Amino acid sequence: MTDPTASTKGPIGVIDYGVNNVGSVVNALRRAGVLPVVVKDEAGVRAASALVLPGVGSFDTGVKNLREMGMFDAIKDRVANEKVPLMGICLGMQLLSRGSEEGTLEGLGLVPATTRRFAFEGENKKLKVPHMGWNETRCSDADFFQGLLDDETRFYYVHSYHVVCDEAGDVAATCRYGLDFTAAVHRGHVFGTQFHPEKSHRFGVRTLGNFVRIIGHG
Amino acid sequence: MTPVLAKRVIPCLDVRDGRVVKGVRFEGLRDMGDPAEAAARYDAEGADEIALLDITASHERRGTLLDVVERTAKATFVPLTVGGGVRDEADVEALLAAGADKVSVNTRAVEHPELVGAAARRWGCQAIVVAIDAKRRGDGWEVFVHGGRTPTGKDAIAWSREVADLGAGEILLTSMDRDGTKDGYDLALVRAVSDAVSVPVIASGGVGSPAHLAAGLLEGRASAVLAASIFHEGTCTIGEVKRYLSAAGIPVRASEQAA
């Protein structure tokens, strides 16, 4: 109940923009104790009291689909102007940035950051991209990662690009894969995880549960 | 310590007509329960991923598999790989929509290799696994298809390189000689393929003890180890396996951490 702007009058909306199956995110949110709805258009975005933006796939496809389905501007407006809480997952977190080396289209720009491809040097050149699997994650945001500050917390990742924040204060967790990259962001009412909480077992469910608690749905 | 990617332990459920079955060298199948229930148990024990391989003979009974995948995806919170009888992009799409995170292609990859590239471009290489069933032939290994019934004349190492180039995100490598025997992986095969490709290799076929899993990761250099009967038959739990691997110095995701 920490965010006084969070409204409990609408459900949490999980945004389906055709880039992946949102079923597992809905399923994990249910496990975290809420009953989300799947949102596929502007009206859905407008009706939700909080938004979850999952996604796998390419940056430009994500932007294009959100625009074609009439949700891009609505998400920006509601999150930036109405302070509706949002959590981006994987591609969804990258879409919070201004743009990505993966494409040419403009991102949502809800977190001052850019998205870059993994570029390794020397010894690390043999590392495989995508970074896929369970990796140790150093969680620094004590609220977003309450109960998950242990050294051995592992989450499940599948990605070839990573978010680079302008402001260190927005970084909520980091992970190492050839280089230290941002594993999670938290800026006011905007949250993001590069890993897949819905596929990260109880740690993932706990992360979603923390988001739900912080925004006042818990 | 520098964090490293954990080696994955993957229990595999062979599914026929909606039920878990297990045989020796692909024959003599026994009923071992409901797939979603078994998967939920493995998920709770700390499995890093779940594999469902459908060995239903008839394609007409595909609906049963989609129902199993849907129920299993709902009961688990780790990645789910599904394979068996995948013929085209429509099959891949249906499995992903039902809740699979990765789809594995075997026979069809040999018959129509372009399916691998097309699917990888459409859903990303992380979603496409190529399963290879290999049998020792002289100094090398031959690829078999149709559930191990049909020899292809293809060399398993060369085929592994080919599918990795086509866009497969992972290779699920089963030794037909060892499958169901509990004699351990064919480590020479696992090592040869792991060294030949840059994508992760999942070792499969022949596990009878946690030591076999450790050997697959250390000697075989696999990224992940898959086993079926040791888990189904209760020889050991996923947690026991994780503790064994950890004690052997292998980085794994601890299964008993409180969260």
Give the secondary structure arrangement, pairings included.
The complex is a heterodimer of chains A (218) and B (259).
Chain A (H helix, E strand, L loop, with lengths): L11 E4 L7 H9 L5 E3 L2 H6 L2 E4 L5 H10 L3 H9 L5 E4 L1 H4 L18 E5 L13 E9 L14 E6 L1 E5 L5 E7 L1 E9 L2 E4 L7 H14 L4
Parallel strand pairs in A: 1-2, 1-3, 3-4, 4-11
Antiparallel strand pairs in A: 5-8, 6-7, 6-9, 9-10, 10-11
Chain B lengths: L7 E9 L2 E6 L2 E5 L3 H11 L4 E5 L7 H14 L4 E4 L5 H10 L3 E4 L1 H5 L2 H10 L4 E10 L2 E6 L4 E6 H11 L3 E6 L11 H10 L4 E4 L5 H9 L5 E4 L1 H4 L5 H10 L12
What does this structure look like?
The complex is a heterodimer of chains A (218) and B (259). Chain A has 218 residues and is α/β, with parallel strands linked by helices. Chain A has one domain: 3-Layer(aba) Sandwich (Rossmann fold), CATH 3.40.50. Chain A contains six helices and eleven strands. Chain A has helices at residues 23-31, 42-47, 59-68, 72-80, 91-94, 201-214, and strands at residues 12-15, 37-39, 50-53, 86-89, 113-117, 131-139, 154-159, 161-165, 171-177, 179-187, 190-193. Chain A has a nine-stranded mixed beta sheet. Chain A is globular, with a radius of gyration of 16 Å. Chain A starts with 11 loop residues before the first strand and ends with a helix. Chain B is of the alpha/beta class and 259 residues long. Helices cover 36% and strands 27% of the residues of chain B. In chain B, strands 1-4-5-6-7-10-11-12 form an eight-stranded parallel β-barrel, surrounded by eight helices. Chain B is globular and about 45 Å long. The two termini of chain B are 21 Å apart. The model of chain B has no long low-confidence stretch (mean pLDDT 92).
